[in-house]
């Protein structure tokens, strides 16, 4: 018996098939259907001569899949992305390949979807306009803004977005109505932080990118940039006063420097970490009397949940 080769979905098809709001709903559905991120396989790294392979397999109800990403530090010298890769989605029972997806586009869609799913109960606990501050001007920074707009449309208005960058003059493309671009460490950035309802950290910084004393008690902070145990974007002081949500406590304590160092400095204990599953499924209440901080590691099940929704949409509308 012969089988047709699995289809390949590139960035444009991925974007066309699933909206940011639908990606959030796919992540929430996986958790509400009973999946526990604590059982997700840990990602593995394999060194090769010119970089690394990152291998992220997962299985949830209805599907199985693996992301294979490559990290080639010298690719910038030849005009290629530092990180590239493919996602392979399989049938859950026969393990027959169903589709190949561009891994970078999938990651760009699922990362902000996970963030917004984790904090949606805090975002929707109040009405009124939302002021957003974003540290990071790359695809993840802009992607979080797009996902927030998609999810909050019809319930809360995005009143303004401020991007904070070390060299704001290099990112003039981001300037438009309702969007400001300011330099890091200055008075404009501090003023924007004091007003912010939502703060997004999507940088490559290895040290905290803002003074958390400026963060309001009812603000939501999302940190997605650091993925190493010795790097962090958020200071320990915020952990002392925030409700801290993570995808999985074990993963966060192993991979997330923001969490690892805050625990080492006595700002929080592992027992105080709130799992994303509890936040999404209503096991805990994210009250408005203290900040909500979501620290993301980026886990394999998240890619699978979103990839499955994309391919199901394709198969339902051939």
UniProtKB/TrEMBL annotation:
Database matches in Gene3D superfamilies: NAD(P)-binding Rossmann-like Domain, ornithine cyclodeaminase, domain 1
SUPFAM superfamilies attached to this UniProt entry: NAD(P)-binding Rossmann-fold domains
Species classification: Bacteria, Bacillati, Actinomycetota, Actinomycetes, Streptosporangiales
Native source species: Planobispora takensis
Gene Ontology CC terms, in alphabetical order: cytoplasm
Pfam families the UniProt entry points to: OCD_Mu_crystall
Entry-linked InterPro entries: NAD(P)-bd_dom_sf, ODC_Mu_crystall, ODC_N
Superkingdom classification of source: Bacteria
Protein name according to UniProt: Ornithine cyclodeaminase
């Amino acid at each position: 018996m012969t089988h047709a080769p699995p289809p390949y979905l590139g960035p444009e098809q991925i974007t066309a098939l699933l909206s940011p709001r639908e990606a959030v709903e796919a992540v929430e559905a996986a958790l509400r259907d009973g999946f526990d991120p604590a059982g997700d396989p840990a990602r593995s790294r394999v060194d090769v001569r010119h970089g690394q392979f990152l291998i992220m397999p997962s299985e949830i109800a209805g599907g199985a899949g693996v992301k294979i990403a490559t990290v080639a530090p010298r690719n910038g010298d030849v005009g290629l992305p530092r990180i590239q890769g493919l996602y392979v989605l399989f049938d859950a029972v026969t393990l027959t390949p169903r589709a190949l997806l561009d891994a970078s586009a999938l990651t760009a869609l699922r990362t902000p979807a996970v963030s917004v799913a984790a904090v949606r109960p805090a975002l929707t606990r109040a009405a009124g306009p939302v002021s957003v501050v974003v540290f990071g001007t790359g695809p993840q920074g802009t992607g979080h803004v797009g996902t927030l707009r998609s999810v909050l449309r019809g319930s809360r208005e995005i009143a303004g977005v401020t991007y904070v960058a070390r060299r704001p003059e290099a990112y003039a493309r981001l300037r438009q109505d309702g969007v400001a671009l300011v330099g890091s460490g200055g008075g404009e950035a501090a003023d924007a932080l004091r007003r912010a309802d939502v703060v997004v950290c999507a940088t490559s910084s290895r040290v905290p990118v803002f003074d958390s004393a400026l963060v309001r008690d009812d603000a939501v902070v999302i940190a997605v940039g650091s993925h190493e145990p010795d790097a962090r974007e958020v200071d320990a002081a915020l952990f002392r006063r925030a409700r801290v949500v993570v995808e999985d406590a074990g993963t966060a304590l192993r991979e997330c420097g923001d969490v690892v160092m805050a625990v080492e400095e006595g700002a929080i204990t592992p027992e105080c970490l709130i799992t994303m599953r509890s936040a999404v499924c209503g096991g805990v209440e994210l009250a408005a009397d203290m900040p909500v901080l979501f620290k993301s590691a980026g886990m394999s099940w998240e890619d699978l949940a979103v990839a499955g929704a994309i391919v199901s949409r394709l198969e339902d509308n051939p």
